[in-house]
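Appendix C: a fully annotated inverse folding record. The material below is reproduced so that readers can follow the format used throughout the book. The structure is listed first as tokens, followed by the designed sequence.
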């Protein structure tokens, strides 16, 4: 049977055409996919550096989806804006002035080298670096760039950075302090070899040692061996309060902390980016540091504030501290009594109630600081419910941006040792059969096998041992990363429009991260709004509304506003009494400040109340500042010019102008609108009474 050649050729031609059409369709699909991917990449790259100008729509910035109200007026002339975001007028005259005064000679011929190893967290490292610079100046010694133990290469971090340079800029540090002390990056070769062989003398310096200790114990050894090693274990190796004739050393501390200690470029760049993204909406923001670390909660006996598994973790840590005499007292402490006495942190929901009562609306931007919030997101849920725009560094940065500041790091894997099951039978099966007449007891069951997940988490080591578990390599690396996270948070908290701390003590009873931030803000811009909370008074006020926590009455909110505003100035006296003896950087005035002349008010409105307030303030100022020096003439001229411009723009005495919203109900929209309509006259009367009540 023969087939027609013509028909076969026609069928093959159709098949070829069909296949060619499929190829064109596939090619067209690939081109469309490539174009779509290109557009997505362009949009993604554009959104990274995109400055959002209109936040009324739902625009997502990284994982932050800001939601704002149109009703808030951010005009500088608005009374509510002045109350919430304006500066503290009574402190405008205090200006930073840490320059040397009088006869201050440059460093002369060195007596030898001081090599320092520093241990501790971010705030302890910062305090210690300032102290060792002062000690080097006092002993007329050459300081080797300090070694920060938490950032050595043995902790699994990148080899691109060495110790001190992991956080701070070495070149900037050396340049700023060039006229104060001699600084070198490493020891000379001969001394470096002697240090490796442990042949150089070493001192484990006690905390808050006096200058006489270094004069009588360290200096003779330095003169003999030309090098000494100082080990600083607890953060701070020099007493905070120095005699008046050593005031220049206090100003040197300020130059180190506030001018020489600049973060390395990668860290500073990311912090600047996050600040830019926070301010992209053209709105001010609040920085909040909870201060809720496990060590601090254990030290101060605040375990029962949690009422969950975290209570057991805190108690375990406190038992560990008691065994090592880190803390004194009993294991079980009435946490509520501690809270009422102001010895425990304010919980995030309590901070939210205070901010809402002061007058901050539900759409206020709140930047959450701190490397650790003990209790996790569960404790932050109430704050997120009250305020829509609660953000942190992770929601304002990309993963690769955080990876960039870490540098190139090797992949680490924690190898959990396998636990062998030891089958310990009292008798062998053969002996069991011939052991005597029945009944006989059954053989003991084999021990239960322990899998790795049984010993990795807290549920394993809390039950197994009274000691804290040894840190793994990954945990050591994470601790080093936390220093970088806190460096970013520190920069943002210092630059924030408003700062509010949840707690001001660490796990050793010393001033913590938040205290350093408040000290830096006091030095850099004393008039910037910083809430100095009297936790004891606030705890009493909060206990009054426990039964109606989220709907406080207007009288209670007025008391809260009055208390918070009063302590912005009066709280300085408590800080000078409680924090400064433990850490000079937490309260660097008056040694590092000067008092500027301010322009007189052109308007005579409320003149008598202003004069009374001024007299009261000057009395308070003298109590905690003592005899503060006047600023140089050139600084006074600039202040007079700036003060006159501020007065032309309006004063900020009318903190509670009539009709200005000032209640927690601002972020409870529905109830706020109803109450504002029904109680408008009552609001005006109360605000007028509060204004005339002599408040600052």
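Designed amino acids, in order:
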């Amino acid at each position: 049977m023969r087939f027609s050649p013509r028909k076969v050729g026609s069928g093959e031609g159709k098949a070829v055409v069909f296949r060619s059409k499929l190829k064109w369709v596939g090619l067209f699909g690939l081109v469309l996919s490539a174009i779509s991917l290109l557009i997505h990449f362009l949009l993604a790259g554009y959104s990274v550096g995109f400055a959002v100008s209109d936040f009324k729509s739902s625009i997502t910035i990284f994982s932050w989806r800001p939601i704002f109200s149109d009703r808030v007026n951010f005009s500088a002339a608005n009374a509510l804006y002045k109350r919430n975001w304006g500066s503290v007028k009574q402190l405008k005259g205090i200006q930073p002035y840490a320059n040397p005064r009088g006869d201050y000679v440059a460093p002369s011929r060195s007596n030898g080298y001081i090599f320092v190893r520093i241990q501790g967290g971010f705030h302890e490292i910062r305090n210690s670096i300032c102290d060792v610079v002062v000690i080097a100046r006092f002993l007329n010694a050459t300081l080797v760039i300090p070694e920060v133990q938490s950032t050595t290469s043995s902790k699994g971090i990148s080899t691109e950075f060495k110790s001190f340079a992991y956080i701070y800029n070495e070149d900037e540090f050396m340049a700023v302090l060039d006229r104060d002390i001699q600084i070198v990056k490493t020891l000379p070769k001969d001394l470096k070899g002697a240090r490796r062989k442990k042949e150089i003398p070493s001192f484990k310096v006690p905390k808050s040692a006096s200058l006489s200790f270094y004069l009588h114990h360290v200096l003779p050894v330095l003169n003999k061996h030309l090098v000494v090693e100082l080990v600083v274990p607890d953060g701070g190796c020099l007493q905070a309060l120095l005699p008046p004739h050593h005031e220049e050393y206090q100003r040197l501390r300020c130059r180190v902390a506030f001018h020489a200690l600049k973060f390395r470029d990668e860290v500073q760049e990311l912090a600047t980016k996050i600040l830019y993204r926070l301010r992209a909406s053209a709105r001010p923001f609040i920085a909040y540091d909870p201060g809720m670390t496990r060590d601090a909660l254990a030290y101060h006996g605040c375990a029962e504030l949690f009422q969950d598994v975290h209570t057991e973790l805190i108690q375990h840590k406190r038992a560990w501290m008691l065994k090592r005499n880190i803390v004194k007292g009993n294991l079980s402490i009435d946490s509520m009594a501690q809270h009422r006495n102001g010895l425990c942190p304010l919980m995030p929901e309590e901070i939210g109630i205070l901010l809402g009562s002061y007058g901050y609306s539900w759409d206020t931007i709140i930047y959450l600081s701190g490397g650790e919030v003990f209790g996790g997101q569960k404790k932050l849920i109430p704050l997120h419910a009250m305020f829509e725009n609660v953000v942190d560094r992770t929601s304002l940065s990309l993963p690769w941006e955080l990876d960039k500041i870490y540098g190139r790091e090797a992949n680490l894997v924690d190898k959990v040792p396998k636990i062998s099951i030891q089958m310990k039978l009292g008798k062998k099966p053969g002996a069991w059969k011939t052991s005597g007449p029945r009944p006989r007891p059954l053989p003991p069951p084999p021990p239960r096998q322990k899998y790795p997940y049984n010993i990795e988490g807290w549920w394993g080591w809390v039950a197994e041992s009274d000691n804290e578990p040894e840190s793994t390599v990954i945990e050591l690396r994470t601790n080093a990363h936390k220093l970088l996270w806190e460096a970013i948070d520190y920069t943002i908290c210092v630059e924030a429009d408003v700062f509010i701390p949840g707690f001001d003590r660490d796990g050793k009873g010393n001033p913590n991260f938040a205290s350093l931030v408040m000290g830096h803000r006091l030095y850099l811009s004393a008039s910037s709004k910083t809430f100095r909370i009297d936790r004891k008074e606030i705890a009493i006020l909060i206990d009054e509304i426990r039964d109606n926590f989220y709907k406080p009455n207007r009288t209670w909110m007025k008391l809260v506003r009055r208390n918070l505003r009063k302590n912005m100035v009066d709280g300085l006296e408590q800080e000078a009494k409680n924090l400064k003896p433990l850490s000079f950087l937490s309260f660097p005035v008056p040694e590092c400040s000067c008092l500027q002349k301010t322009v007189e008010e052109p308007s005579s409105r409320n003149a008598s109340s202003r004069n009374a307030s001024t007299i009261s303030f000057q009395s308070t100022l003298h109590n905690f500042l003592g005899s503060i020096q006047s600023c140089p003439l050139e600084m006074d001229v600039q202040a007079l010019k700036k003060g006159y411009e501020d007065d032309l723009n309006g004063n900020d005495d009318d903190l509670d102008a009539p009709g200005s919203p000032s209640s927690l109900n601002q972020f409870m929209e529905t109830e706020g609108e109803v109450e504002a309509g029904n109680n408008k006259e009552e609001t005006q009367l109360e605000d007028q009474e509060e204004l005339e009540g002599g408040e600052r």
